[in-house]
Write a structure and sequence with these properties.
about 30% helix; about 20% strand; alpha/beta; 3-stranded antiparallel β-sheet
């Protein structure tokens, strides 16, 4: 009997496949706010895959098996201070985790403002995030996704980008030539993990602010990209996670955003852990902090019952 079980497992294991994934360019023809330069995309593979100088933004689509699919999807923005992307640590690993819960993970490789290929540096990340949201809705039926259950998720500076989309989205341009641009870029929910939020407060992450806006930015731009000041009545429900001992991006960023959401009556859930530092990703093996992922899944499921 034991030999038979081993034989069955040996036969079945090769038939097990990873969730479907493929790369889709964000822009079919001309990329907005882009000028050709001699820059090339840089990839550094150490214990984390870092990507910088992004020239061709795209999304990598990770889909769960159709039978497992819940209909939810999350566009994922890796962090990296707007200088680089922690692409596997806060991107593809997150997508695979979501797939294990029946949720589609869409990893966004967005342009970074520190590339000289940008015409106006601070515009490119948000343009790419809006496009990723629209494209996910455009392909929703073929990806087994519900168009009303697509959210945005971001880590650190990626959390700033995610919260920027959640406070600066639009509902699409009905007169646009490209049908994708007619679709809303509003996320249905936000998941912000140790996010950069404010550029006006003492607790701002100076590196992210300088990378996005420059060292001497226009005060109006600083206010515009301080997302605790930009919460709207239609800002989506939000889930926040931060560590109290984060000395890179202080927890006061999440606290300020939560207070702004609360003031507008936007549903929000926040988990603050005493220890964890910055950049913990899935926090595997880090004690209680590791359970933030369980809390997040419970929150995502609760959205369907409100």
């Amino acid at each position: 009997m034991k030999n038979l079980q081993v034989l069955i497992l040996t036969v079945l294991i090769p038939a097990i496949s990873y969730p479907q994934n493929y790369i889709l360019p964000l822009w079919n023809d001309s990329v907005p706010n882009y000028r050709k330069s001699d820059e090339k995309e840089i990839r550094n593979q150490d214990d984390i895959l870092g990507i910088s100088k992004v020239q061709n933004p795209d999304i990598t689509v990770y889909l769960p098996a159709a039978r497992h699919a819940t209909g939810q999807a999350v566009v994922i923005c890796p962090g990296g201070g707007y200088w680089a992307l922690a692409y596997d640590w806060e991107g593809t690993d997150i997508a695979r985790w979501l797939n294990s819960k029946g949720i589609a993970g869409i990893v966004l490789k967005y342009r970074l403002p520190t590339s000289k290929s940008n015409i106006v540096p601070y515009l490119s990340p948000l343009l790419d995030a809006k496009r990723a949201m629209r494209l996910t809705r455009w392909h929703a039926s073929e990806w087994n996704i519900d168009t009303a259950r697509i959210g945005i998720m971001g880590f650190s500076a990626g959390g700033h980008l995610a919260s920027t989309l959640g406070t600066h989205f639009d509902y699409g341009d009905p007169g646009a030539t490209d049908p994708v641009d007619r679709i809303s870029s509003r996320p249905d929910f936000m998941i912000l993990i140790y996010p950069v939020i404010s550029f006006t407060q003492k607790f701002t992450h100076t590196g992210s602010k300088n990378a996005l806006l420059g060292e001497k930015p226009d005060p109006e731009l600083v206010k515009y990209y301080s997302n605790e000041l930009q919460v709207r009545d239609d800002t989506p429900p939000t889930f926040l996670v931060h560590a109290g001992d984060d000395d890179g991006v202080p927890v006061t960023n999440s606290l300020a955003f939560y207070q702004a959401l609360y003031a507008k009556g936007i549903p929000a859930e926040m988990h603050i852990y005493p220890k964890g530092g910055h950049g913990f990703s899935l926090a595997i093996g880090q004690g209680p902090l590791e359970h933030w992922t369980d809390c997040c899944i419970e929150w995502l499921r609760s959205l369907d019952h409100k």
